[in-house]
Amino acid sequence: MRPAKRHILAAVALTFCMAAQASFIDSGNGTPARPYRITSADDLVEFAGEVSWGNTFRGRYVVLDTDLDMSLYEDFAPIGVCGDEAATSTSFEGTFDGLFHTISGLTILDTVTGEATGLFASIDNGGTVCNLHMGADCYISGDGNTGMVAGRVWDGDIIFCSNDGRAEGRTRTGGIAGDMRGGLIYGCCNHGQVQTTEAGAGGIVGRADGTIAIYGCYNSGHVTSRRAGACGGIAAMAYTRVDFAACYNAGRISGRYSEAFEISPAPIASDIPELIWTGTMEGCCYDTALSGDVSQNGAVAMTTARLSSAEGIDYLNESLPALDRQASVLDYPYEDTVYRRAPQAYGSTLPILGWELRSSSPIDEIESDLHPRLDIRGTMVRAADGSTISAWSPTGRLVDRGTSLTLPQGFYIIEGQKVLIR
User: Fold this and answer.
1) HSE toward the beta carbon, residue 318, CA cutoff 13 A
2) Distance set, CA 292 to CA 217, 352, 413 (Å)
3) Residue 78 in contact with residue 47, Cβ under 8 Å?
4) Structural element, H or E, at residue 229
5) Pairing between strand 389-392 and 398-402?
6) Gap between the Cα atoms of 56 and 44, Å rounded
7) How does pLDDT run across 12-47, given as a tens digit for each residue?
8) At what angle do helices 41-52 and 5-17 cross, to 10 degrees?
9) What is the spatial distance between Cα 403 and Cα 384, in angstroms, rounded to a whole number?
10) Residue 144's beta-bridge partner residues?
11) What are phi and psi for residue 50, nearest 5 degrees?
12) Is 112 in a helix, a strand, or coil?
């Protein structure tokens, strides 16, 4: 299939429109010491056009210097163009470091090409995306190979990325990546909704097929496949050498058993045929109360209390392989790379990854001992004393204000507290 022409045309138009403006390319030389710096939504659009036109940024570093609100761009063209093979794709091959910033308000609607849809359409040749958060108001819809961070990864890494937004596709759709052919997904988490009209919805990745490691990842979002077949908390489909370690699921898995293919929804990986999957599953577990009516051979079933306890956290960390590469321009302290108990302000006691406490949003400036009490019941939040409260997005946008708030799934700042609504 030929790359989508509209992506190329969009890149052409944006390149000409911004020709007179200062380019983010002028902000550095692409080395770790002087990376290219994205400081605005316009810069991100220009970056997407650069990659779509063939600048792979191979061996170069691009950093996100600030939180971005992309809501003014109604039809953002993904970064790169994915073909039906790696050779026919225009892929990102450098390192994109989000510096723990958030992209919010991003909408991508691409149900035509069938190849790949995501913030990054295609990643190859060791390309890396790290330290990035996709906000709760992000929405990406595609045909096949749809992911919030990447549509398709031919050969690359996604490290310390999270998603609160909503991903929808026909098949092979994930909260982080749609289709993975080789590489590493490390320390990533999904809190958003993932849905496919057919089978193939995965909390982290839709389909993983190749030599792939998925380590230290968890899902707390609702994962749904409307048709019978593959539907998994971490991966919907895992073929060939896909290794899972220290992953857990605490999100509802809504799928149906496929009699034709004998595939059941599962909390870790759904479609892992014995004759095709040669990988391993070590130190993985799932919350029996939150995952729904699913089970997994090779993973431990736990109560919420056990998973949230020191025993549950130790179980995950004991099986978590050390991160063996320094992709970021930042240094990762050990405590950033392992599971920890969530602080009270999260509204949940389930394990989180240490780097999640390193968010770049204004919540870092809030004194933890000044949190007022909140009454949180499902998606409804109110102050214990009945006073008016305000809910803000992690990027500082007012979401709602009142004495009683009903909020979509995601993270919010409510009266100084970071609250996770499930």
Assistant:
1) 10
2) 19, 20, 28
3) no
4) none
5) antiparallel
6) 15
7) 444 444 444 678 999 999 999 899 999 999 999 999
8) 130
9) 10
10) 171
11) -60, -45
12) coil
User: Which tokens is 188 given?
Assistant: 């990533």
Nearest to 72 by CA among 49, 106, 103, 46: 106
pLDDT tens digits along 329-370: 777 777 788 999 887 666 678 999 999 887 543 333 333 333
In angstroms, the first-to-last Cα distance of the chain is: 39
Residue 257 pLDDT class (50, 70, 90 cuts):
confident
Q: How far apart are CA 150 and CA 37, in angstroms?
A: 20
Angle at 236 between CA 352 and CA 169, to 5 degrees: 100
Instruction: Yes or no: say if 130 and 96 are a contact pair by the CB < 8 Å rule.
Output: yes
For residue 226, the 8-state DSSP code is S
Q: How far apart (Å, rounded) are the C-alpha atoms in residues 205 and 167?
A: 11
Residue 99 C-alpha from the chain's centroid: 15
Amino acid found at 131: N
State both tokens at 320. Answer: 């978590």
Separation between Cα atoms, residue 366 and residue 261, nearest integer Å? 51
By DSSP bridging, strand 235-239 and strand 281-282 are unpaired
Residue keyed to tokens 């992690």: 394
Instruction: Give pLDDT tens digits for 120-175.
Output: 999 999 999 999 999 999 999 998 899 999 999 999 999 999 999 999 999 999 99
- At 372, is the secondary structure helix, strand, or coil? coil
d(C-alpha 47, C-alpha 58), whole Å: 14
CA distances from 48 to 41, 95, 120 (A): 11, 14, 8
CA distance 132 to 119: 11
How many C-beta neighbours within 10 Å does residue 114 have? 18
What letter represents residue 94's amino acid? Answer: G
Total residue length of the chain? 422
Q: How many helices (H) and strands (E) does the chain have?
A: 5, 38
CA distance 148 to 299: 26
**Considering just the CA atoms, what is the radius of gyration of the chain in Å?**
20
Q: Cβ distance 195 to 201 under 8 Å?
A: yes
Q: Is the distance from CB of 118 to CB of 146 less than 8 angstroms?
A: yes
